[in-house]
Amino acid sequence: MTQEWERLPCFVHTLQLCVDDCKEKIPNSNALILKASAVVGHFARSTNSSRLLDDIQTRLSERSEEPLKLIQYCKTRWDSCYDMFARIKKLRVALEGVWCERPNIPRLDSSDYNKIDIYINLFAPVKDATRFMYGEQYSIIGRIIPIIMALKDQLTKGFELAAGMQKLATLKLRNSVYIFLLVKRSFMSVYAQLFR
């Protein structure tokens, strides 16, 4: 008796495809990503600017913690755009200090920071879902539907852009839900055969 195996796409990869589709739908998101990447790239290439950023962080810090580095966006690394924006937001005061001392280096303005805040708020639930599913050695298919429902709930709370993302996510994730139900049905039939 031969049975065909149903291919199950990776749930986290499906989430990231939703994020990629949505980034393309957000107005001027590529320009913001390029601008932020230019800032991060400058600090990666310039040891003087990097040292100055570290010094300012040390002066601003009440505790003696290690200064944070900026995170570069990498198109093939999941969540790297989110991570880059979150780190830039966290280091905003220190970056402003560097820009005061060195006004000729690439910089972000308040409009850019507003867009970064929107991006972070919009994609934070996806980042959490990705972290949660990667947090286990093996992803459990029973977690997919609760995560999809939580994402749907989070994405409908207060963001205009969320409606577009929700539509895209629904199309992409509907396939995952269908596969979940198919696997569940297959599992139940196998389970029934084994324990007759």
UniProtKB/TrEMBL annotation:
Subcellular location: Nucleus
Record organism: Trichogramma kaykai
Protein name according to UniProt: Zinc finger BED domain-containing protein 4
Any single Gene Ontology cellular-component annotation: nucleus
Principal subcellular localisation of the protein: nucleus
Keywords: Metal-binding, Nucleus, Zinc, Zinc-finger
Molecular functions per Gene Ontology: zinc ion binding
Classification via PANTHER family: ZINC FINGER BED DOMAIN-CONTAINING PROTEIN 39, ZINC FINGER BED DOMAIN-CONTAINING PROTEIN 4
Family annotation (InterPro entries): RNaseH-like_sf, ZnF_BED_domain_contain
